[in-house]
């Protein structure tokens, strides 16, 4: 197949399945949409929780944040937001970083940074929740 006439170099099967050259583009596309949708109620709930504890004495704030429902909502929000952030930055890096070495370094850095943010936040929430 020649690409000069505007025809695709992909096989018919890969076009039907929506698979890109790396076979992961469609999955990233859907995960980004799913996390974006999940972020709406989760971030609103997390903001409501944080607004409730704003200005409260330390003991009251810890009691609210230590409630299992509040902790679960905050952990889910952190997971969803950081996953969405990782996927979004991956797309930006893949689109705009053209040097292969820099691209790999940026992608690895993106994964480590997003994972560190998620783990630090989840650790803090669990520490408050379990009263450690």
From TrEMBL:
Source superkingdom: Bacteria
Keywords, comma-separated and alphabetical: Electron transport, Heme, Iron, Membrane, Metal-binding, Transmembrane, Transmembrane helix, Transport, Tricarboxylic acid cycle
Composition skew (Polar residues), residue ranges: 1-15
The keyword Signal is annotated on this UniProt entry: no
Region (Disordered): 1-22
Subcellular location(s) per record: Membrane
Pathway the protein takes part in: Carbohydrate metabolism; tricarboxylic acid cycle
SUPFAM superfamilies: Fumarate reductase respiratory complex transmembrane subunits
Keyword hit for Ribosomal protein: no
Cofactor(s) required for function per UniProt: heme
Summary of subunit composition and partner proteins: Part of an enzyme complex containing four subunits: a flavoprotein, an iron-sulfur protein, plus two membrane-anchoring proteins, SdhC and SdhD.
Described function: Membrane-anchoring subunit of succinate dehydrogenase (SDH).
Protein name: Succinate dehydrogenase hydrophobic membrane anchor subunit
Lineage of the organism: Bacteria, Pseudomonadati, Pseudomonadota, Alphaproteobacteria, Hyphomicrobiales
């Amino acid at each position: 197949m020649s690409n000069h006439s505007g025809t695709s170099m992909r096989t018919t099967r890969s076009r039907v399945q929506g698979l890109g050259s790396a076979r992961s583009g469609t999955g990233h596309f859907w995960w980004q949409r799913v996390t974006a949708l999940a972020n709406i109620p989760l971030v609103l709930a997390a903001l409501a929780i944080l607004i409730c504890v704003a200005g409260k004495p330390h003991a009251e704030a810890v009691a609210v944040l230590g409630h299992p429902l509040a902790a679960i909502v905050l952990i889910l929000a952190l997971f969803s937001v950081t996953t969405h952030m990782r996927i979004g930055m991956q797309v930006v890096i893949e689109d705009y970083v053209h040097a292969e070495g820099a691209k790999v370094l940026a992608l690895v850095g993106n994964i480590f940074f997003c994972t560190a943010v998620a783990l630090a936040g989840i650790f803090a929430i669990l520490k408050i929740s379990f009263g450690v």
